[in-house]
Design brief:
elongated; alpha+beta; five-stranded antiparallel sheet; 5 strands; 467 residues
Length: 467
């Protein structure tokens, strides 16, 4: 009987459940903002490099090194990768038998009524046992194989999550960094404006004392100065909040972190070359992670389907048992057993069907999430390509606006000194110049941020465009 059952246990039957196929997604032939784009697949293992170095900022480089070492989101993602790897190892262990060893001593005293003569004392018995037991579940229906498939896909998803966490934290740091530098530039502009307005107020007071202008001019100069001072203070609040956010990103307590003042890059930010290589999108880590989760969910359907089939197990025991210590490890003390078991659940009130339905629904959910991630990836690239293109044009227009505002202020100030223009006209032109300069700084900061976000949208490093 045993010889007939063993070949069945050793049979490598095909795994139940659907074999995995990558879900199809509708990808555009080209981006509206960048002609020549081709559809791509995730290639998350490709290297990215220190993409932020294209900005040529030593302080940013130093902060990025701290993110890699001390950021807690990255640390949590790395721990999750180790968890997934351990779970995958646990699933692979199911291919192998389980071996257990035990040692027991049994001491018994039979009752006097069971002896040859009722009432006569019987001998106490001591029996020592040293068995080794083996249990192995044959993977007839591919349950273990599907569990291993799910585990390996989950490891790959966690690895992509780690890459995505690192890229996201780096991009967040760079985004905050350039926004902070833009605020610092704005603060310097406001400080210069406050100094200029202070001189204006002093001049106006002197002219009022000489009877050249009215008290209204003095009040207008004071109002203008105080408004500029308030703006300068408000910028300080925003800078402090950004500095605190950067402290979290580099893994330092906010009270202990301080960023030295720096300059906002004056040159246009690095931009990707026209006709971006498709390999950049292939390396987007969130797309890779989403696709691997689809594969894991698909394998779990096979695990659920295998529960409808009988489970076959092979068990065996070998060891020594004796009541005489001198006979340990001798042939007469040897014992063994070998057995085969088949188990099939006949009725469970629909539990297995519910588990199977849940696995299928989970797969459908991951497919939808994967397709949504792909669509969002295309949208992210479009957003930031458009932002860079439009902001470049806006920067040129704003530069002209600043030059025009400066010329208007010079003319108005000369007219004011000549007595043919009011201080209100001067204040209006000064405010217009300040607003134009502030807007120009904001655009420059937004261009740098858009450049960072495009790097993130493309999944990592890229080379600066060559003229």
């Amino acid at each position: 009987m045993m010889r007939r059952l063993l070949p069945l246990l050793l049979l490598a039957a095909c795994a139940v459940g659907p074999d995995y196929e990558r879900p199809k997604v509708e990808a555009p032939a080209a981006y509206k903002e960048d002609a020549g784009w081709k559809s791509a697949e995730p290639r998350d293992a490709a290297p990215r490099g220190d993409w932020w170095r294209v900005f040529g900022d030593a302080q940013l480089d130093a902060l990025m090194r701290k993110v890699e070492v001390s950021n807690q989101t990255i640390a949590a993602a790395e721990a999750q990768l180790r968890i997934s790897s351990a779970l995958a190892d646990q699933a692979r262990a199911g291919f192998w038998p389980t071996l257990n060893a035990s040692a027991t001593r049994t001491e018994s005293q039979p009752s006097r009524t069971t002896g040859p003569v009722i009432g006569q004392a019987t001998t106490r018995r001591i029996i020592d046992s040293l068995p080794l037991s083996v249990a192995w579940e044959a993977d007839l229906w591919g349950k273990i194989r599907r569990q291993v498939e799910a585990g390996e896909a989950s490891v790959q998803a966690s690895a992509s999550d780690l890459v995505n966490a690192r890229l996201s934290m780096q991009a967040s740091l760079a985004q905050n960094y350039f926004t902070l530098r833009a605020l610092e530039a704005q603060k310097r502009l406001l400080d210069e404006t406050v100094a200029a307005y202070t001189k204006n107020l002093e001049l106006t007071r002197n002219r009022y004392a000489a009877g050249v202008v009215s008290r209204v001019d003095v009040a207008q100069a004071e109002t203008q100065l105080n408004a500029a001072r308030a703006q300068a203070v408000d910028v300080g609040v925003q800078r402090a909040q950004l500095e605190h956010a950067m402290a979290v990103l580099v893994g330092e307590p906010a009270p202990a972190f301080a960023l030295a003042p720096g300059e906002l890059a004056a040159a246009p930010p690095p931009v990707p070359a026209t006709g971006l290589p498709a390999e950049l999108l292939e390396r987007r880590p969130d797309v890779a992670a989403a696709e691997r989760r689809v594969a894991a969910a698909n394998a779990q359907i096979g695990v659920a389907k295998a529960a409808f089939f009988p489970a076959a197990t092979l068990t065996g025991t070998y060891g020594y048992q004796t009541a005489n210590p001198s006979l340990w490890f001798t042939a007469p003390s040897n014992f063994w057993s070998l057995g085969v078991g088949l188990a099939l659940t006949l009725f469970d009130a629909g539990r297995r069907s519910a588990v199977s339905d849940q696995a299928i629904a989970s797969y459908d959910q991951t497919v939808a999430q994967y397709r949504g991630t792909v669509l969002q990836a295309f949208a992210d690239v479009e957003d930031n390509l458009a932002a860079l293109r439009i902001l470049e044009a806006e920067a040129a227009i704003q530069a002209e606006t600043v030059r025009a505002a400066q010329l208007s202020l010079e003319i108005t100030q000369n007219q004011y000194k000549a007595g043919i223009a009011s201080f209100l006209q001067v204040a209006i032109t000064q405010t217009a110049l300040l607003n134009a300069q502030t807007a120009a700084l904001g655009i420059q900061g937004r261009r740098l941020v858009a450049s960072v976000l495009l790097v993130k949208a493309l999944g990592g490093g890229w080379e600066e465009k060559k003229n």
